[in-house]
């Protein structure tokens, strides 16, 4: 099987890779590019642990063929922090203990950031619906929702101050 | 999974040539059903043909009063078109009940239709709307009513080499409204136990002049219940007309018993949801006056 040559921008870096035509974007991120923050929970789009942004929209990277990423922009959990400075969503997950095993956390953080980039003042209901595609088997979701609401409040304050 | 060939042609003719050359080849819209089925081993296409590099296949455009929705348009993009949301809120809402935000950012109504699940959420809304789809194939293009595409669970009437290029939502009167409701045991991320799409036209006095009711998840395919629509035409949607409509809906249900719901529950819920859906469509039609 001929491998496909793909050019993408991943976390701001122009990136080239070779992939099997049937490989998922998640396969390439983890196994070829060694960006192992995105996780494979279900491989069928049900759990959201592999959530990344593709051209600015969050998707399950397990349900994207890597070859489809040609010319596209991909943003993964590895690009959320700025150097050693955590994004407010990450900081609030720590402060609220919004994780236990941590497997779902990268997907939740990418999804939550995607929401707050669009809607800086979501209601709790909006947060819960937006995150319905991310499964957590540890926390019962309450701490996650509180962390996201608190991160939203902090981001609004930062924007007001700026 | 075994690796298929991957193609991303930039013309409709290019897609038809690739699909015609390999009967196992599959068009790729959002991949939220196709890639899952490939990974589970349920299907093993020799080639996957991505539709998203054909500019005309992504997005919503107007041709006069007709809305044309490209086959590769993701469900969430429908919400960005204010005119479409105003004219066909039921269709837009139905497409945006599928899966999660992650899934809807990829999934397409054409994929929802051609996956041929009886529980597909966008299909009853499209059927109620009287939508057609343009199908391209080796013999050229043809326009087909949406309800004529699925023939049984997982099977469509598309011939070898054919694929859905776009949907066309017809022009409508000044006082018209549509709606879609589904019943699921939870509030998100589930498959319809029953789904109902309704589309109504009213005249200046509020009398119903046309009505289409379509049901999902209560038969091997989505069904258009003509008798249910007929029960509403000529009425002001009074209790008697609604009861006759519910009776026609219940009679048209031929559901299965499964873990999501029993036959009796599905039939009863179809009637309940049909009444609610018609009332929402009627409010929307009235609100436009």
Question: Helices and strands in order, then pairings?
Answer:
The complex is a heterodimer of chains A (162) and B (289).
Chain A lengths: L3 E7 L2 E7 L5 H8 L18 E4 L2 E4 L12 E3 L12 H8 L9 H14 L5 H7 L11 H20 L1
Parallel strand pairs in A: 1-5
Antiparallel strand pairs in A: 1-2, 3-4, 3-5
Helix pairs in contact in A: 2-5
Chain B lengths: L4 E3 L4 H10 L4 E3 L5 H7 L6 E4 L9 E4 L2 E5 L4 H4 L3 H6 L1 H7 L5 H4 L4 H6 L7 H8 L2 E6 L2 E6 L4 E3 L2 E2 L6 E7 L6 E8 L10 E9 L5 E9 L6 E2 L1 H7 L6 H14 L10 H25 L2
Parallel strand pairs in B: 1-3, 2-3
Antiparallel strand pairs in B: 4-5, 5-10, 6-7, 6-10, 8-9, 11-12, 12-13, 13-14
Helix pairs in contact in B: 5-8, 9-10, 10-11
Organism (chain A): Novosphingobium mathurense
GO molecular function (chain A): 2 iron, 2 sulfur cluster binding; metal ion binding; oxidoreductase activity
Keywords (chain A): 2Fe-2S, Iron, Iron-sulfur, Metal-binding, Oxidoreductase
CA distance, first residue to last residue of chain B:
55 Å
Task: Name the CATH architecture of the largest domain in chain B.
Answer: 2-Layer Sandwich
Total helical elements of chain A: 5
Q: Give the overall form of chain B.
A: globular
Which regions of chain A have little confidence, pLDDT < 50, spanning 5+ residues?
A: none
Q: Biggest interface in this structure?
A: A-B, 31 and 31 residues
Strand order of the largest sheet of chain A: 2-1-5-3-4
CATH topology of the largest domain in chain B: Uridine Diphospho-n-acetylenolpyruvylglucosamine Reductase, domain 3
SS field, number of helical segments of chain B? 11
How much of the residues of chain B is beta strand, in percent?
15-25%
Structure, described:
- The complex is a heterodimer of chains A (162) and B (289).
- Chain A is of the alpha+beta class and 162 residues long.
- Chain A contains 5 helices and 5 strands, in the order ββαβββαααα.
- Chain A folds into 2 domains: 4-79, Roll (Ubiquitin-like (UB roll)); 88-161, DNA polymerase, domain 1, CATH 1.10.150.120.
- Chain A has a 5-stranded mixed β-sheet, with helices on both faces.
- Chain A is globular and about 50 Å long.
- The mean pLDDT of chain A is 97.
- Chain B is α+β, with helices and mostly antiparallel strands and 289 residues long.
- Chain B has helices at residues 12-21, 34-40, 75-78, 82-87, 89-95, 101-104, 109-114, 122-129, 226-232, 239-252, 263-287; strands at 5-7, 26-28, 47-50, 60-63, 66-70, 132-137, 140-145, 150-152, 155-156, 163-169, 176-183, 194-202, 208-216, 223-224.
- A 5-stranded antiparallel β-sheet of chain B has the order 4-5-10-6-7.
- The longest helix of chain B has 25 residues, at 263-287.
- Chains A and B meet through strand 4 of A and helix 2 and helix 6 of B.
